[in-house]
Amino acid sequence: MAYLHTPLLILLGALLAEAAFGYPKALYAAIRHPVVWMGGLIAALERRLNVLSLPFAARRRRGVLGLGLLLLAVGLPTAALQIGLLALLPWGLAVGLLALLAATLPAQRSLYEHVAAVADALEGPGDAAARLAAGRRAVSMIVGRDTAVLDEAGVVRAAIESLAENFSDGVVAPSFWCGVAGLPGTALYKAINTADSMVGHRNERHGAYGWASARLDDVVNLPASRLAALWIGLAALLLPGADARGAWRAVWRDARRHRSPNAGWPEAAMAGALGLRLAGPRIYGAVRVEDHWMGDGRAAATLADLRRALRLYRLACALPLFCLAAAVAW
């Protein structure tokens, strides 16, 4: 029976280790991060295969080929490693080692730290203009929009939106696929998600080549986005001042109206739980992107809302850990 829930034990150990230690800076300085390695391979494949002079259909086929090569390069060694460790080492030791390796891929701790840095900047030293400038710099590290045009409420909304969306694709999704298949599951998910972030753009260079990466990322994130909304809604039940009914109402009404098939679910849940409006029109570079609002609360988000969102996020991370531990123990 122990072998039947091996992926769940790997996931439990990985989440506990990542929450406690994150990804050590010394290790990053020495060998970088697995996502950086994946990004290097994605960039190399794109330079080799994405020939802009080719017809659209040919570039799309090359994008499918590039994605397939990436998945083989990530999936085969991680699957071989998991199978080999479980076959050659005592089961408990193998699970522990696999959990430590898988702990490099979720981003519970780093996401919290990056969003908390925005809150720290907005309440840091100096006058209001200096604090706003610091907040814009901090939030520019986690969002792709033009932060120079954001006022304080815009900075706060951007940080909360990033917290909600990345809770889904940076925490829940790698955890879900780790629970399904262990180390290769979470590694393959991160490869797909990284490919989408690098080449899955609707522009002249990547519109054809990145099509397969963007579509596959939508598919593999579908269960996680719904689970993320569920965890946020449940966490709202436990956080004083949060509105769980508002979270469910916003998800039911607004999630499907988001331009992304997945991002609307956690963003709507977060908006409803905090009594805010998130998403809406945004500026990326010089391009204004029209999108529906998630939630029907205040657009004028405050620093207090950001701190409350961080507390809600921590509860939303703790709840699945508790449920997973209980399931494994049972």
From TrEMBL:
It holds the Pfam family CobD_Cbib. GO terms for cellular component: plasma membrane. The keyword NAD does not apply. It is a multi-pass membrane protein. Pathway: Cofactor biosynthesis; adenosylcobalamin biosynthesis. The chain crosses the membrane at residues 64-83, 89-107, 312-329. Belongs to the CobD/CbiB family. Converts cobyric acid to cobinamide by the addition of aminopropanol on the F carboxylic group. NCBIfam families: cobal_cbiB (TIGR00380). This is Cobalamin biosynthesis protein CobD. The lineage of its organism: Bacteria, Pseudomonadati, Pseudomonadota, Alphaproteobacteria, Acetobacterales. The gene is cobD.
